[in-house]
Design goal:
about 650 residues, alpha/beta, Isoleucyl-tRNA Synthetase, Domain 1, OB fold (Dihydrolipoamide Acetyltransferase, E2P), seven-stranded parallel β-sheet, six-stranded antiparallel β-sheet, 20 helices, about 40% helix, binds 5'-O-[(L-methionyl)-sulphamoyl]adenosine
């Protein structure tokens, strides 16, 4: 089966940061996972180089625009190469082939009557390359997305008949419920479309740094709107409009995007494809936003994290592991060195690294490094069953991009291995002259490590190759089929010593960012000001909307043993499965009284552990001297309905 996976193409007006790295890591992981399973997979990434914003950045840098774009694009490519990103193509939108393909697409849409010429007058944000109706502006002037000043622009423009596709798009979301992942994000898109779609201005005459519209239109003052040419990269990269041999990979299986650009990918993009009579991608998968120590990253705060800086001190694959383990796909994530160090020390070094060292140590003592799986079934059928059950559950998580759950499950294998060692104590068995049993346990753990390495390889390819080398096998589709699909065990081999894979980290290795200075650059500062508290203690509306409040329906509730205050509650928020929320309301509500009732939930809180249980949200409640009551909608509302 063939697969096609894409990242967004990155703007070349700034350097890559860990937000970009996250999109690329997750797409790379998915590609490696599909390849491991034997699927012919094509992976595209690249850079988005047209538009007024890039032209202006080049001017500021005092360089010709193409030279500036080439240089910046190369920094992305080098970065991904240093991270061993296994892309099949790195597209630059200034590539000749891309221009040809984009013009061809424009021609097709025009010939179909989906593009027509008219005038446009509106408020334009250069930074976001987007027009906004006056009603959406902040204080009648500022861009609602980035806070920068907009300007009134009137120009002749070609329009794409987006309005024509409103019903078709709504049908798409209905018939293909996994088109937008996570499903919880679909509502915002559907509501936007239901609110009515205006035709989209798809050309500009106010600047020249863009793909010219086709010569056949004889109107060479127009260049394409950057989002039109940018979205088309996903097909021009496969040769659309030229040599389209690679179009066999279309439609894309998964297109990864950040939540901020979901609208472009879930509305404009399928509409363009419908107009081109091309099939639609299977999934548009939108991830959340990364912050640093709870704060937005921005140049003016000086707290932007360059992926290379992190990789240099903590290790590139440790960073991949951390980012994919830390955040449920779709939710926002926070980069803090403390959280990163904790995961390196406890999960990578303790759980995985130590387990490998333990069996290398034992096999060197008991069997001169020889490992044989012959007695594993005899002594460890229980562990083998548990291991196989865990392995079988993994695919489901990866298919839904839930890398955090995938890794959480995968780590259960190390628990099985460690527990088997404690319970069977091979060193005691050796003293009791039960060498077969001792070696059976060592071999069990070697097999656990081998299988876990295969499944961890899409996330940590190099590290797992080293583990596989120690275990005398190679990670590829063959070993995947044998050890994972056919559940076979390793053949007799000699284990090799490896250098420490995950040295413990005792203290933060990077300097924390200094606090923002008062003389920050005006543009970025303006944006920050919109988002931050001023002296009056009042907040901007945007700050309020950073909290995602939703109506939830309680599905189950139970008491938390030994806790006076806590109830463990499962709340339906209209997502694939209910969320678990641990709430301190036991003194005021009995567990039996809650199922079926509705509550208001803070849905984008970082998950936390309370008495060892994960809590993935918070219930709103009001408390005074008379007690506590839950805040509920006045009338029943569908689970997941946003509040605000
Ligand atoms: N050029 C457009 C995409 C065109 S795709 C046809 C663009 N480029 S971007 O460089 O601004 O952003 C690229 C990706 O990086 C987006 O998916 C965006 O969501 C992601 N991120 C940028 N900052 C981010 C964080 N702080 N955290 C997570 N991802 C973020 O948009």
């Amino acid at each position: 089966m063939s697969k096609y996976i894409t990242t967004p193409i990155y703007y070349v007006n700034g350097e890559a940061h860990i937000g970009h790295a996250y999109t690329t890591f997750i797409a790379d992981t998915m590609t490696r996972y599909e390849k491991l399973k034997g699927n012919d997979t094509y992976f595209l990434t690249g850079t988005d180089e047209y538009g007024q914003k890039i032209e202006e950045s080049a001017q500021k840098a005092g360089k010709p625009t193409q030279e500036f774009a080439d240089e910046m694009s190369a920094t992305f490519k080098t970065l991904w190469d240093n991270f061993d990103i296994c892309y099949d193509k790195f597209i630059k939108t200034t590539d000749e082939d891309h221009k040809i393909g984009a013009q061809k697409a424009f021609e097709v849409m025009y010939a179909k009557g989906d593009i027509y010429k008219d005038f446009y007058e509106g408020h334009y944000c250069v930074s976001c390359e987007t027009f906004f109706p006056e009603t959406q502006l902040v204080d009648g002037e500022f861009c609602p997305d980035c806070g920068r000043t907009t300007s009134v622009v009137k120009e002749e423009s070609y329009f794409f008949k987006l309005s024509k596709y409103e019903d078709k798009l709504l049908k798409l979301y209905e018939n293909q419920p996994d088109f937008i992942l996570p499903r919880s994000r679909a509502n915002e898109v559907i509501n936007f479309v239901k609110g009515g779609l205006h035709d989209l201005s798809v050309t500009r005459t106010s600047f020249t740094w863009g793909v010219k519209i086709p010569a056949s239109l004889n109107d060479d003052k127009h260049v394409m709107y950057v989002w039109l040419d940018a979205l088309l990269n996903y097909i021009t990269a496969l040769g659309y409009g030229k040599d389209d041999a690679n179009m066999k990979y279309w439609p894309a299986s998964t297109q990864f995007v950040g939540k901020d650009i979901l609208r472009f990918h879930a509305i404009y993009w399928p509409a363009f494809l419908m107009s081109l009579d091309l099939p639609l991608p299977k999934h548009i998968a939108a991830h959340g936003w990364w912050t640093r120590n709870g704060e937005k990253m921005s140049k003016s705060k000086g707290n932007v994290i360059a992926p290379k800086d992190v990789a240099d001190v903590y290790g590139a694959e440790n960073l991949r592991y951390f980012m994919l383990r830390e955040v449920p796909f779709g939710q926002d994530g926070d980069f803090s060195q403390r959280a990163f160090i904790d995961r390196i020390n406890s999960e990578l070094s303790n759980d995985l690294g130590n387990l490998l060292n333990r069996i290398i140590g034992m096999s060197s003592k008991y069997s001169d490094f020889e490992i044989d799986s012959v007695d594993v079934e005899k002594y460890h059928s229980k562990e083998l069953d548990a291991m196989n059950e865990t392995l079988a559950s993994l695919d489901g998580f990866m298919q839904k991009m839930q890398t955090h759950r995938y890794l959480e499950e995968l780590w259960k294998l190390f628990v099985i291995g460690n527990k088997a060692i404690e319970e069977h104590a091979p060193w005691v068995k050796m003293k009791e002259d039960k060498k077969d049993e001792a070696l059976g346990t060592v071999a069990l753990v070697a097999n656990i490590l081998a299988k876990a390495s295969i499944m961890l390889s899409p996330i940590m390819p190099k590290t797992t190759a080293t583990i596989a080398d120690a275990l005398n096998f190679k990670i590829n589709n063959d070993s995947y089929k044998k050890l994972i699909c056919d559940k076979k065990l390793l053949k007799l081999f000699n284990i090799k010593k490896v250098p420490p894979l995950f040295p413990r980290v005792e203290e933060p290795l990077m300097q924390e960012a200094p606090k923002a200075m008062p003389d920050d650059k005006p543009n970025d500062k303006m944006k920050e000001e919109l988002l931050q508290k001023d002296d009056s203690g009042l907040i901007e509306i945007g700050q309020f909307f950073e909290t995602s409040l939703k109506v939830g329906t309680i599905v189950e509730a139970e008491e938390v043993p030994k806790s006076k205050k806590l109830l463990k509650i499962q709340v339906d928020l209209g997502e694939e499965s209910p969320r678990q929320v641990v709430a301190g309301i036991k003194e005021f509500y009995s567990a039996e009284s809650l199922p079926g009732t509705q509550v208001c939930v803070v849905a984008n809180l970082k998950p936390a552990k309370l008495m060892g249980m994960m809590s993935e949200g918070m219930l709103l409640a009001a408390k005074d001297e008379e007690g506590l009551c839950l805040v509920r909608p006045e009338k029943p509302k569908k689970a997941g309905t946003p509040i605000g």
